[in-house]
Amino acid sequence: CRKDAIDLKKAFFWHSEACGNNSLESQGALGVMYMTGVGVKADSNAAFICLREAASHGDVYAMGNLVAHYYKRKLYTKCMELAARVAMFDDVEQIARETDCLPSYIRKGVAMAAFYYGRCLHLGLGVQRNEEEAKSYYSRSYNFDPDVCARLQYMTQHGGI
Asked: How large is the average pLDDT for residues 22-27?
């Protein structure tokens, strides 16, 4: 077993422990770990449960990942409804104070939601097609987190989205 694999298993353990202490970020982190199979065996049902729970308590990063989860499962109406709402969040610092989540992850969550909402608008998935409005959401994604936007754009160009 490689050292980084052991560290990921430790991360999973400690995030699990932190969930018992009501850590929103840890709940969302577990969802992402289950979704990607990092530090634990991939499990889309467990990912959904963790992400939904964290999102229901205000974790914006979990919301962005829940949007991705819906999109991947072709639940486009659910995807675009949540994405449209999250993509409009503005006051990152206020959200950070209210949720005790890191501003950088709030920006990542908004960037993900804005990109997926743009994608739904671009292709007419769960919403009427509107390429001009899609461009504005792609731009919003970039403005919130250029790296997240670039990763999602790369995935789009290579058939991952």
From this structure: 66
